[in-house]
Amino acid sequence: MIGLIGTSYKTADISIREQYAFTPEDIIKFSKILQNNPDHKGLVVLSTCNRTEIYFHCRKRKEEEAFELILGALSTLKNYSSSHKSSFYFKSGKEVPEHLFKVTSGIDSLVIGEDQIIGQVRDAFCMAEEIKSVDTILSRLFTKAFEAGKKFEAIRLSTKALLQLVLLP
Questions:
Q1: Which CATH superfamily is domain 2-167 in?
Q2: Which residue, of 20, 113, 137, 169, is most buried by count of CB atoms within 10 Å of its CB?
Q3: φ, ψ at 168 (rounded to 5°)
């Protein structure tokens, strides 16, 4: 099963987002915690000032069990508390690529269409590759998301250029 657990500017205030923000060292520790579980298959952690998202692939078939696997590791590393559950969103199956495509295109950003996020997602993916926490399923998902993000960026730039031409005096 592929899944996503995240918190963002849409669901949590800054204090919660700061508590669950990941440094590169945190990502390594988190990955090591999960690697000890035979049900864990892959992981990519995206952590920016406005969001922390944990994309994962595991052997669990039931959503609840899969989310508990990740939340258990989050409890170990970040002292996750169930009292914060309402500050998180949980996605599985086709919701995961839909969400990731919105993120990489900037549609899910605080400033809609901003272009920094695709670089941040790419950095998160590269980090996962470096520490060998990404598997083939997540690798393919992120590769497709980058392709979609590039297409969206090309459309955004051509639209911007057309608007500039139209608005010239």
A1: Glutamyl-tRNA reductase, N-terminal domain (3.30.460.30)
A2: 20
A3: -65, 140
